[in-house]
Amino acid sequence: MAETIMMTALSPTMQDGVIAGWLVSEGQAVKPGDALCEIETDKATMPYESPRAGTILKITALAGARAAVGETIAVIGKPGEDWQSVVPAIPAITAIPALTAIPATSSALPALEAGPVPLPAPVIAVPSAPAAVPPLNEPAFPSLGPSLPASTPPSSPLARKLARERGIDLRSLRGTGPHGRVIRRDVPSAGSVVPSTFGGESSTATHADRGAVAARTTGGRLRGDRVPISKMRSIIAGRLGTSWTQAPHFFVRAAVDMEKLLDLRASVNAGRDRPVGLNAFVMRLVAAALERHPIINASWEGDAIRYRPAADIGLAVALEGGLVTPVVRACERKGVEEIDAELADLVARARKGLLSPEEYSEASFTISNLGSSGVEEFTAIINPPGSAILALGAVSKEAVVRGDDIVARRMMRITVSSDHRVIDGAAAASFLSDLKALLEEPARGLL
Amino acid sequence: MSEWNIELGWKLRNDMVRIRRFEEKAGQMYGLRKIGGFCHLYNGQEAVAVGFSSTVDHERDYVLTGYRDHGHALAAGMEPDAIMAELFGKVTGVSRGKGGSMHLFDPARGFLGGNGIVGAQIPVAVGVAFAQKHRKSGGATVVFFGDGAIHQGAFHEALNLAKIWSLPVVLVCENNQWGMGTNWKRVSAVDDFSLMASAYGVRGEQVDGMDVLAVKDAATRALDDARAGRPVLIEARTYRYKGHSMSDPQKYRTRDEVDEYRKQDPIYLLEEKMKAAGAWDEERALAQDDAADTMAADAVAFAESSPEPALHTMYEDIYSQDPFFMGRRDGIHAMPSRNPATGRA
Amino acid sequence: MAIMSYREALNRAMDEEMEHDASVVLMGEEVAEYDGAYKVSRGLLEKFGTERVLDTPITELGFTGLGVGAAIAGMRPIVEWMTHNFALLALDQVVNEAAKLRHMSGGRLSVPIVFRGPNGPAEYLSSQHSQALASYWVHVPGLKVVAPSNPADAYGLLKSAIRDDDPVVVLESEMLYSDKGEVPDEETLVPIGKAAIARAGTDVTIVAFGRPVKYALEAAALLEKRGVSAEVIDLRSLRPLDEGTIMESVARTGRAVVVDESWPAASVGAYVAHRIAVERFDSLDAPVEFVSSEDVPMPYNHALELAVQPSAGKIVAAALRALYLEE
User: Fold this and answer.
1) H-type helices in A167-309, by residue range?
2) Residue range(s) defining the domain that contains residue C229
3) Is chain C adjacent to chain B, meaning 3+ CB pairs within 8 angstroms?
4) Fold match flag (A122-229 vs A247-446)
5) Are strands C256-259 and C204-208 parallel, antiparallel or unpaired?
6) B318 and C51 in contact by Cβ < 8 A?
7) A130, A241, C199, C254: which could join C232 in a potential S-S bond, CB 3.0 to 4.6 Å?
8) What does pTM read for this prediction?
9) How close B125 gets to chain C, by Cα (Å)?
10) ipTM for this model
11) What is the CATH number for C35?
């Protein structure tokens, strides 16, 4: 008995997902748990595993298509079974004929059969690889992210609507209409490749390149080029934009004497094959501070404030083309070593784009550490649904006054950004003060 | 003066006084900005409307006129309250506040308006007469227009049609001598409009429009002819005391000219005749005057206290069924249309 | 189904309605003894007599106004204008009287009248006799306006117009009078305010009315040969306008070509194009195309006069522009 394979929610908040690429083809037999396709979601590309054994009868949402949760993406069954018995009316987007360019004279247009898409086939703007790469006159600025064109090209209302529906940034499309207008045929529909303006790079995500999503956002960037934003970029832009504009941020700072914590870390790491990272210590101490200040470990929910039951602490991890915040759950119940092991695994997988959504969502508090980049101090934007984020600067030796003496101490500047809807200044100050004390006297927090 | 009798005299006087008082009140209300736009007063011309209406059979005849229509509407028996409310633009007005001063209608009393385009009511009136003839109703149509309208093609085309189809219609030119600010003699090829009838083989007659009894006699003769399929053209020579409309400064004529005509005032003339006939009763006259004052005051009170039309009524009275519109009904499309019980908002 | 000409269909409509309702009369220039300048009223005088079929003097203002007066006094006149060009003399009576009397009287008056006659270009008639004046009437609230493109609609719409309690202007076409088509044998009314899908299609919507519907259908046939499936909407009623049918179609096709044989400025076609642009903004893949008359008075020379008007070729070209298939 054939049955449909539907898009499922791969994260608590997922409404829809884009088929990054199919790993199986029609007619192929699969076992339960086999990866059928890659789904691009909030921050990662996830394999979609087959729920049952059978043969893929029909793929209804082709690569590049956006499918809402619950929407059919394929049909599975016994070989030879009629897939249409399960999905009688396949949307027109799945019936794209082969791509053909429109001949110069319309008299040469192919006669089209009556069908769901009787128009001449859309021409998808995929630049042929090398020719589309503009000559490199100057070195690229590697420190800059992919430069997106500032403005959208002229486009028909319908093309805009379709692009919106399919989650395609218009700026990534090349218009073939008058004055470069992006028109319907320029918007890739489900089943066609995702166009890319990156010269030479195949934009079709395949199982062979799990990091394709991340790579695509940065690979081959060129000054003056128009680069489509990735799903991840789009999510970052949306989430942090919303956070910055909706959460009234305020900041409290402190200088922390790191001598004892660094000595402790050095003694712990003595003789270990793999040293325990400083982040794990900080995370554990932050959890201790959060236990004393549950008001900080909370989420703004519009008509209520939700106090989180555990210190689920995220750590911002820079990726090529973006960042992700893997979350170590319930840090208050874990030891530094355990936290460190989890972190190591999460970060490694995050860099490969292999985190599952529940591994990087719903942090109750976040830590961002730019110390390794030499940043002295900075302020971070709160990572919702948390209400506060801790920004760690670099540890450096400073001249400080101890008693009546000026001494050299390894100091770290920390800044807590707080959402004033949830956290008032005094509460943030109190938290900061306790956190400083814990970092300076780690033994108290690690007991 | 064959129709002369005392009670008729009192009735004609009363009708004229009521119009006079109503118009004076309307002029006052215009000055108080209770009435806007064009407001053409009938003061001085009352004998024409009243002389005709005393002869018209309001059961089967029709009356149409131009924009100086308050006097004709009152003479046709329309309610002063509803007329004043219409001048005030209230929903209780005879045309629900859609028509205003120039567009008073009461088909039940045979009064078909109330027309703002100079002379345009003449072909329409001839068409009403066509329907009367077609249905053999025995009714006739009287259409009033001014000395300006008589030069319109509409008058000439309509008079010709009335004649060739033998329609029961009386065309009454109320020559008040001023087409807005232009003296009628400056723009007319003839100095007697009744002559124009001869061009179409129609009987023409000139009558003193300040003499209500003379008007009544002429009206009686004309309606007799009309009912027999012989259209008639009447020129009623009259005079308006007020400006063309309320916004007319009347620079084109002298105060003396107006005063001269006031000496021939139709109400005064009738009173003189009644006195000469020994039929005068000062107390009765004062009682008529008081009643007319009260009528005008009551009309204003009614208009004042009446509600403004609801915005959604702008979409009503345009088509026979729930109206079709080319555009959107911005913001008020969800409003109820009419009260099904009364057919009114 | 009987095959009859557009002219015969109009004649049949009037004949039946005059038979049904004694208050229906026909008046106009040459409608009686001459049987109509275009023979639309042939035989009606003989059948209904001089009291109901009346030759008027050449006084458009006068007899149009007379018709309005008869209508408010309870009759259902059909006023034939020899052509709409001459109806301009009667503009006041249509715009200021017929369309306004109900409104100015607060709903107390009803004006059940039909104004009909040929509108639009004919042949070799130059500037005063070859004009498409639909927008003169469509502009005016209080009027209804219909434009039948074929005999069946001519029959059904005229019957509805005669029965309607509001003033209805019927735009006929001299160039359609001899066109033949199927007309139902049984009595049939075509509702005012409902467009027809003259041909179903999926790629582009062509909206037309009156005679240009023929060109639109020819254009659709040409487009089909090129693999384009064009839908042709025959508006039939211009006021009220059946926006639902138009918008439903454009939502499906994403492209619209509006055809109007009038001059472009302030025309029905321009209004329809505007409504599509507003209502279907998110469905359009191309600007709404508009094929109108050239913005010039009609010349006498035949080659020139044909070039001035919309044609199947112009519609095809417009459709291809809308489809980005222009050569």
Assistant:
1) 212-218, 231-246, 259-269, 278-292
2) 196-322
3) yes
4) no
5) parallel
6) no
7) C199
8) 0.65
9) 6
10) 0.92
11) 3.40.50.970
